[in-house]
Amino acid sequence: MKILKPSESTRLFQMKADQSNDEPLKLPLIAISRDNDFEILSTAKKPLSYDGGHIDATCEKSELLNGIPIRLSYQLDIYCKYFAEADEYVRNFIFNIINYPNLHIEIPYNNANIVHDSTLMIESTVSDNSDIPERLISGQFTRMSIRLTVDDAYLFSVPFMDNWKIEYSDDIYVQD
């Protein structure tokens, strides 16, 4: 799976052509792209950003899961030959996203392999974006776009911290 920018539909078609040895594209084609920007939801220092959850600890090292909340935006594009077919796919995606919005995301950072749950939200407007430059003639294909957001996403950091310990000794030294 590859995630591209919304403006990279030409790149999507080039990648598909490379994968299929320049054979014609087979529709339907479902593509997801992430917006270039993301929104930082909390810019203040909080315990989660520097002393988050303790994941794993050994005698010498501790592993933390620090996070800063962000909002991510995506665009789901559905390419079909006919409008009625695209409309059916859009309807199915809308019902599935609204009824089953949970995402289970594995965080492979520093081999932590932690699972984070988020919720996928659908924006209220669905667009017919069929008039892209890659369409040579009107009616060649239909492209419907659904905008999605993840409001409970995080920038994660999984640093290792050194553990320090104080050892007490029963030996008492007395100087004369």
Short description:
The protein has 176 residues and is of the alpha+beta class. The protein has helices at 9-19, 47-50, 83-99, and strands at residues 29-34, 39-40, 53-57, 61-80, 102-107, 114-128, 142-157, 160-162. Strands 1, 2, 3, 4, 5, 6, 7 and 8 form an eight-stranded antiparallel β-sheet that branches.
Q: Care to describe what's here?
A:
With 176 residues, this protein is an alpha+beta fold. The protein has a single domain, classed as STM4215-like (2-Layer Sandwich), CATH 3.30.2000. It has 3 helices and 8 strands. The radius of gyration is 25 Å and the shape is elongated. The protein starts with 8 loop residues before the first helix and ends in a 14-residue tail after the last strand.
Order of helices and strands: HEEHEEHEEEE
Tell me the domain tally.
Answer: 1
Strand content: 35-45%
CATH topology name, in short, is: STM4215-like
Helix and strand content put the structural class at alpha+beta
Q: Any guess at the CATH architecture? A: 2-Layer Sandwich
**How much helix, percentage-wise, in residues?**
10-25%
Strand count, sense and closure of the main sheet? 8 strands, antiparallel
Q: Which outline best applies?
A: elongated
* Uncertain residue ranges: none
Global mean pLDDT: 80
Terminal CA distance: 75 Å
Look at the structure and give the CATH class: Alpha Beta
Radius of gyration: 25 Å
Total number of beta strands = 8
Contiguous helical run count:
3
Which oligomeric state applies? single chain
